[in-house]
Structures are given as structure tokens and as C-alpha cells.
Amino acid sequence: MERRSAERRAWPRGPAHLLVLCALLAACEATGPEPPGQEAPRVPLREVAAQREVRIGIGAAAGRYFGATTGLGVKYNQVLAREFNVLTPENDMKHERLQPSRGVFDFTRADAMVEFAEQQGMKVRGHTLVWHNQNASWLADRSWTAEEAAALLDEHVTTVVGRYRGRVAAWDVVNEAVDDRGVLRPTPWAGGAGRSYIEQAFRAARAADPDALLFYNDYSLEWPGPKQDSVFALLRDLRERGVPVDGIGFQGHFEVGGGTPSRHALRVAFDRFAALGLRVHVTELDIRVPVPATAGSLQTQAQNYRDVFEVCAQTPACDMVVTWGFTDLDSWVPGHFPGKGAALLFDASIEPKPAYWAVHDLLSGM
Ligand code: XIL
pTM of the full predicted structure? Predict the structure, then answer.
């Protein structure tokens, strides 16, 4: 993955290449590129990307079916390995999972994911070290002095990043530090003090693995406004002071149609942060639709997905798009956005949706 072509490739050339693909695979209906049957062969996304020397990684978050050996779980793990070249643990590297009791770490599932990724030739995006959510209750349910919090942060970041030294390509070091108004959120990691914990987290992560890329990750940065401005100012300040922050993660939890930023807005947002010398990753892409989904909403969703991948591919600083899950069988969306769902590239039977084919078509045309 992330193979760089000597020069940027031309953008989609229309459907001619699909006809060739269809002829080769004998798997497409006359009306389009979609294989008609469950078992129809297709060139996986990561293969298309490799063949075309697409320089963006295509990843997915691995959730509760990871490692499952029965029923659809088998297909889940096969498709995860076959289609993607980046893996992010959806929940298994969060504080509550890794350090459920103070000073007691449990790396069982995180280890399994990192090993799986290595076996399958996938990079790992580590998510996430310092966040105000999904912290173990021993940490979250009481207050800490600034000194105590700093020691806890150091221990957690050093232990986790150190364990995977050389094996995790990029870490979401700090997640969602500011709220929608652009104001710093309360978090146990601050120990009642200001924002120095952010800088401390990046420095500890760099010391624990000098080769890992270190990201600030957040949502709603794709639109202009107080939140984007605030995070921009935060990162500019960190960069100016030599704090080791390498990249900005745009989570990308969108809603179909008007709830997905325009290509223009995305481009402006990516470029704004790239101008600070930051790499850009789209880290948690999903595009929810009102359920039940309609053919029309899934077509619009397909175009929205294509737009995000295309703007990333056209932005020199952007070299990874990770979706938050990959199948509607296992997605956080229905649980968090009532009445919404069907947000991913594969349906609940782990069959490709129009959005999958839109991304496939885009990559094929690169
Ligand atoms: C979500 C997971 O997908 C859910 O399974 C969990 O219950 C809550 O967290 N921003 C983030 C992710 O950075 O860690 C969140 O993941 C989604 C929003």
C-alpha cells in the first residue's frame, strides 16, 4: 500500500476499463460492473490499488466479528483481509480495554489484531491513546491532580506505544480534545489543568516509538467553523513549538447527501491542515442513510464515498482512508444515530454495495 507513482495519475476515464474488467472476470451484468451472484469473483480493493499504484491506503476498523470462526464471522475475516490494506481496532486499543485495572494491561485482542494485520500485509492504525471516552472506570470515575494525571498518561502511552513499537504505523494519540464550539473538553487526562496533557501525550508517544506517525484525530473538522479553527490553532501552536504531531485525522462520520461535506469543503479542510506540514488521514469514514435504505439513497451514498476517496487521492498530504467497520452487519451507526444505518461499503450479508463499486471504479480509473 501507499505505493507512490512517479507522477499523479489521471482521474477516472469513464467506464471503458470496467468493460475490460468485466470481460476478464466474466462476472458483470450487461447493465454495469456489479457481479450478480454471491460467489462472483472480483478484484479486491487493495489489489486494484496495488495494481494501479494508488498511493492511498484503504482500511477498515475491525470490530466484534474479528477472529470469529462461525457463521458470517468467517466471511467477515476473509473479506477484511482480502479487501483492505490497513486495519484499525474499533475498540480494542481503547483505555478501558487495554488497562481495565490500574497498572494491569490486557493486550490479548489488540495483539491478535496486530498479528492478523502483519500476516495479511496490512498496516495498523492504533486508536486511541488519550480520549475522554471509553476510559476504564478506575480512571474516569474520580478526579486526579495534575501530577497524578501526568504520571498515569505517561505510563499508559509509554506502555502501549512501546509494546507495538515498529508495528503500528500511525497512532491516534489524542482524540476529540475540543468540543463542537472549539472549547477544550474536560478529561481525566488533564488532571484539572489546561491543555499541557496534549503535548505530553505526543512527546511520550514519540519517545516510545520514534517511527510511528502521531495523529490528532477528531470529527466535524471537515466544515469551516469554530471547531476547525480551534483545532487548527491548537495544531499550529504544537507544530511551532516542535511538539511531535505528524498528522490530522478527519474521522468522517457523515450522513448521506447534505450531511457529507462537498468536495470543495473537504479539499479546503485537508489543504488547510496540510499547510501546517501535517499528513492527512480519513480515519473513521461512514456515511449513514435513513433506514430502510432505498436504491436512491445508496446511489447518493456511493457518490459521497467516491468523493471522499477522490479528494484524498488528489491531496498530496492525504494517504489513507479508513472506514469505521466495513459491513452493515457490524457498525456503531444504528446504535448511535436512531433511524440511520447502512453506512458502510458492504451490506449486512457482507456483500458489496453501490458504494463499494463506486470506490472500486474510482481506484480502477486511477
Ligand atoms: C465507537 C465505536 O465504534 C463503538 O463501538 C463504541 O461503542 C463507541 O465508540 N469517534 C471515535 C471512535 O473516535 O472511537 C468511536 O467508536 C466513534 C466516534
Answer: 0.90
